[in-house]
Amino acid sequence: MSDSERDDVLNYPIPRPGPLDAPEEWARLRDKCPVGRISLPSGDEAALVTRYADVKNVLSDPRFGRLLDADDAARLTDGETGLFNSDMAQVIPQSGEGHQRWRRRVAKWFTAKRMRELSPRVEAMADKLVDEMTRTRQPADLKAAFGFPLPVWVICELLGVPSSDRSKFGHWSDTMLNLTRYRDDEVRAAQAQFVQYMAAHVAAKRDSPGNDLLSELAHGDDPLSDAELVATGQGLLVAGHETTANMIVKMIAMLLADRSRWDLLLNDRALVRTAVEESLRFDANAGIGMVRYLTDAVELSGGTVPRGTTVMCSMAAANRDETTFDDADIMRLDRSPNPHLAFGSGPHSCLGQALARTELQVALETLLRRLPTLDLAVPVDDLRDLDGLAVGGLETLPVTW
Questions:
Q1: Whole-angstrom distance, CA of residue 263 vs CA of residue 232
Q2: For the chain, is the Cβ count within 10 Å smaller at the N or the C terminus?
């Protein structure tokens, strides 16, 4: 690596040429600078890893936590609020036996068996949303009409909260995922409302339990505390709809951006499962990635990264690594196996990945069945990024059919 490359500090997130395109820097970083230097929205510097093996190594190592509470840890934003220093992040154990206990309790509700049982109800809701959307004038916003309400309804069902409150959840989630979109006072106000709402919901579940996840966590063996229940409800509402809603929209945008992809699925519905996995891998607009704080030195491709380093793991960049994926920059809907890192890896891998896969597959199957002539209503380059949040997405997805 040259001196100029060593001294190069990239602003992060790295700009992309288009709403669905990968940053041109990813290939250079993987090839020549596998542990790069980046400047976060806060102005603090961190290390960026982009190679598949390195990202998996850091994410899989239980020694490396995701809280940025160490004195020398880099801050994501220059404010006092945000996803990694919220009350929710402080209450839920982030490592050790406490974290494993929490995961074991919650994971029981996200098994593949439960998701298969849930699938017919998700499909019924997807059909209802298509019915409502097709009664409106074209073009329609697929995000507002379908991509967002579907996973909100599902996670509300699992948590026993009314989906009629989904507009509140959207705002609260956005502020919790804030990088640069909201002021600190706006985030604090929204989080206070979120905590108040969830605390009242937890109290109701203590008094009158139902057939839902929070009721079981409140009354089952080894019940969680009220604070843990509030934080769990917040975390699952944010993770359970925000990322999936955006992924549904991005998946459909990627498939319609090249009409041959959509036509291939219309002709062979057996490809839906692998197409979902490939959409997850190919997603170049996946958000900032996963942050870790190194409590010990670690050996990566670029050499030894010292303890005390804040590392940003770009799963999206790793998912384009040619050493792991043949034709990594080509979207192959029949790709199998597909060991992508879209859901992370190791002790902090996504708890709800079986749920996300179920929702994505049902969403795609429903749209192929109900709206085979679905198409983008605007050129791909006119799609706008969802800026200023830790999660990647599109502001809207105008479609016709």
A1: 41
A2: N
Q: Exposure pattern of 145-181 as b/e (b: 16+ CB <10 Å)?
A: bbbbbbbbbbbbbbbbbeeeebeebbebbbbbbbbee
Beta strands 290-293 and 310-313 are antiparallel
Q: Domain range for residue 32?
A: 3-400
Average the pLDDT over each of 11-20, 219-228, 301-310, 319-328 and give the range with the smallest value. 219-228
The amino acid that residue 164 corresponds to is: S
pLDDT for 64: 85
| Residue in 72, 9, 3, 7 with CA at minimum distance from that of residue 40 | 9
DSSP state of 109: G
Helix, strand, or coil (residue 372): coil
> Cα–Cα distance between 8 and 17 in angstroms, integer?
20
What CATH number should be reported for the domain holding residue 351?
A: 1.10.630.10
What secondary structure does DSSP assign to 215-268, as a single string?
Answer: HHHHHSSSPPPHHHHHHHHHHHHHHHHHHHHHHHHHHHHHHHHSHHHHHHHHH-
Task: State the pLDDT confidence band at 88, using cuts at 50, 70 and 90.
Answer: low
Number of folded domains that form the chain: 1
List, edge to edge, every strand of the sheet that includes 398-400. Answer: 140-141, 398-400, 375-376
- 168 Cβ contact partners less than 8 Å away, ≥ 6 residues apart: 193, 197
Q: Quick one: average pLDDT of 133-149?
A: 96
| Most distant CA atoms of the chain, gap in Å | 65
Mean pLDDT of the chain: 91
For residues 316 and 325, give the distance between their C-alpha atoms in angstroms, rounded to a whole number: 13
Integer CA distances (angstroms), 234 to 1, 333, 344, in order: 44, 34, 20
Cα distance between residue 397 and residue 256, in whole Å: 11
Ramachandran region, residue 43 (left: φ > 0; alpha: ψ -120 to 50; beta: rest): left
Sign of CA dihedral 247, 254, 317, 309: negative
The Cβ-side half-sphere exposure at 83, using a 13 Å CA radius, reads 20
Is residue 164 within 8 A of residue 115, CB to CB? The reply is: no
Please state whether the peptide bond connecting residue 151 to the residue before it is cis, i.e. omega within 30 degrees of 0. no
Residue 3 confidence (pLDDT) above 60: no
